[in-house]
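Exercise 7. Predict the joint structure of the components listed below.
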Amino acid sequence: MSKRNPDYENSFWQKFAMWCSGDYDPAKGKFEMKKPGQKSKGPNIIGKLMHILAQEESIYASERDKNLRTFNRFYIIVSVALGFLLTILLLVTVSQLPRFGDANAPENNEVARRYIEKGLEETGAVNIVAGMILDYRAFDTFGESCVLFVASCCVLMLLKEKKPEPEKRYDPVNSAILQPAARILVPIIIIFGIYVILNGHISPGGGFSGGAIIGTGFILYQTAFGFEKTGKFLSEKFIKVITVLALSFYCFAKSYSFYTGANHLHSVITPGTPGAILSAGLIVYLNICVGIVVACTMYSFYAAFRRGSF
Amino acid sequence: MVSTFFTNYEEVASCILFVIGMMNLLLQPNLIKKIIGLDIMDCSVYLFLAAKGYIEGRHAPIYVDGVTDAVNYINPVPSGLVLTGIVVSVSVSALMMALTINLYREYSTLNLDEIMMKLRQEETEKLGRLTYGAVEDEE
Amino acid sequence: MTLVQNFPFFCIILSMFSAIISFVLSGRQAKIVHLAMTGLVFVMSLFVLQYTYMTGSSYTYMMGHYPAPWGNEIRIGALESLMAAAFSLIMLLSVIGGIYHIDKDIDKERQGLFFIQLDLLLASLLALIYTNDLFTAYVFIEICTIAACGLIMARKIGRVYVSAVRYMVMSLIGSGLFLIGLSLLYAITGQLLMSPARIALQKIADTGQYEVPMAVIMVLLTVGLGIKSGLYPFHTWIPDAYGYSTTSASAILSSLVSKGYIFLLIKLIVRVLPYKSIPGAQMENILFLFGVVGMIIGSVDAIKDKNIRRMISYSSVAQIGYIYMGIGLGNNAGADAALFHVISHGLMKSLLFLAATGLIDCSGGRLDRKGLTGAGYRNKVAGVGFTIGSLSMIGMPLLAGFVSKFMFASAATSAPIYKMIIAWTALAISTVLNAVYFMRMVLVIYTPVGAVKASRLKRGAQTDIEIKPESGEKAAMLQKGPLENIGIIGISALIIMLGTYSQVIIDIIRNGFALFD
Amino acid sequence: METLRILLLLFLIICAVSVSFSKKLLVSVVIYMAFSLVMAIIWLILESPDLAITEGAVGAGVTSILLFVTLKKIRSIRTEYSEKEQEEE
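Solution:
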């Protein structure tokens, strides 16, 4: 609401920027001699206010909208007041919480201790976080993949067009920087992404970060070389099928482990040797699945935004 | 009471950021800024969680040389929660961006207030025609 | 562990899996998969209900190999399985009843995506009902929000995008507040599962530490879920969101999505938050107050609105006010009444949306009272359905609405005296207001009109303007199959059954609620 | 170290405020990118490399790219509309 005013010239930051570049002197006109009885500041502020009011008048023109305007103002005031209240509440709360970095804080309890102490033998993952999200609390993580999935469905629903037309206006231009840089960078980015995914259980990273890195690699490739070339290996059908395959594998693998866990059955999945690439039971496969889903989703977001199709 | 106020910088900053983000989401008429406000709001909560997980003098939750003693590593739970949360927030903001594009195509403005006013004018113009499929027919 | 005990987990995974495979299926196949899946979920939930009701106990189900404070878990009792069965049944009937409009409003290539969202919505509702873990609840709240947004904007008109944006903004603020409340809760207890968190909170309350944080957590979690379910001061997104989306989406959104959040809130109140303490009692009073105000303001807004669909949406605000009033009464009877009203309102609202659409269709798409005159004669099933729904909303004996109003009134007697007086007054005023706008509508749709005028209305022409030639085609287009009627008849029968055999359901709710803790 | 922490946090708050007061949307998006990168650095200091790498890839990478693409798309829609208007004239 506060930013409806397009009168940017008079705003503080604009003046600050102009002052930096030497176009504007805030002291100008302040130190000159004034004729007695002339108000120097008044008209400016009043004029500005009038301007704002006039603008509001033009938006809320008819008589019927008068109520609406009062309601909008009331809404703004109430929201700001609530915001201040919330800030104070949260700050008071924070001031009562344990000190930053305290080892005896309530959250460092038996739950976290077991994840650390037993994690290696129970999950086989060297990265405790990966072991936690993909084994101890796997249901959350499956839900999270579903969030990505449903968001990509929604985006597709919104932006899908019957005939995806490549925007001629924004086709890649041949530049001296973009194509050569992309030719060198894209393989490096994608290989780094694959490295991050495959080492998700050994070092920092995992399916989500690696998948996002690969996705940005695809996006860079598309920006440099256009949809025709990208479409050769990333067609809509391919993306759909591979996403469904990865998510189904994830679904089945986790269902198996939930089912055996809840019914106290013996599971065939073993942690393996810690530190090896093919260790940590299902974690490495799940990381690969999540990576595929995330990379495809990120690229499909981009493609849907650009031309209304995958 | 104010004892920890001056040591918990991260938490204090995250509270301030949360309110800034929320106010942006509520009061900015511009949709793109609303989305950025949303991302800032989510990020601030994650900063809070990450700060809660930190323990002074301990290392990242990755086993070094097979040492599995709990006094060596920080709390891994907040990291896991934040990892999940980051992905949730990116998908929500992608959805909001798609909605923004469609709204712009429909009303050619990014200002939500202006869109509301346009809608109201549309309604006033065809007050007599309260029909379910009216808008579709015109397209 | 017997096979039946696995069924809740199967329900959740099945609905997620059908969403995943629907991504590569065509719209028609996705529809079949969705209907079959919802039916299967309903049947399985009935088995679970029978099992839990017979054994009279609740059990926890580990999601993985690790017990309570370490791994995720879900918890199943009679109340949860009853809710799951009711939700899946309402969803099935709403989709069947609105299937014609799904075909008409949504393009062929988008229908598959629409059914994916319905599948995931059901999965997230089931997970919200069953989960015993706070962070899982957060993740599934987000799925529910996104899927609901997808349902709202399935119709491709500008109007619904605006309502979707408003819905998303309010919902995201709600989830943000919920998330920060959750983080604070984690900071002072170090637990994410509900039962251990409760024990930890109890310990903290005994030592007298962290009084302010506890109150703030309670406020944040309650307000977050209140915003998402459309509690009175935060209800502004409701009429837009429900009023312009396709019929099934409106029915499902108003009858299920907001109820999922309410159920989660009740679970949090009973299982986690220290609502028995002094700040908890104040929080209850606030919920009670907002509920009562919402009951009256929602009805007044509904009276003012000319558009029938928006009128029904405003009535949702009032009905959600009833539920919060029941929670705010602060005793078990109030919570029982609120839970019963969750089911009965779910049924009534779906019926009203479906029947209203039936009436609109036979009036050439007109939404105002003038256009709907005599619509009850043109579409008899929809007219009868709308009448039953309206009578139930008003509180006619032998219908579900009467039972829930009676339960609210009797729950108020065991509350403090001032709450009792306020609750009874509010119930009386709200019933009168309900009667004003619903009976007005029923009278309008049964006002006889002359044959010529009726045919004009049917073709969608303005009563005072010449008949346009092309409107004849439009009337032909609005012919539809028998499926719509199946939905309306099914839900009407359920409302009558719930009104006459209410004792069984009330027993299940009472026993289940006692085990909820 | 403590000074660095405070400086970074102050930077975050300044970024968040200046997002809402910047005139150009492109500037807001770039500021948001800086915000994400600083957030990643803070998480690195807080001993959470997993979060840092994810925020670097997702927040500063994908979300910002999507925001840029959104702006670009909006501009292309605008030019499309103005071209149509010109043709009509």
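Discussion. The interface with chain B takes residues 135, 139, 142, 145-146, 149, 153, 157-159, 161-162, 164-165, 168-169, 172-173, 176, 179-180, 183, 186-187, 192, 306-307, 309, 357, 360-361, 364-368, 371, 460, 462 of chain C (CB under 8 Å).
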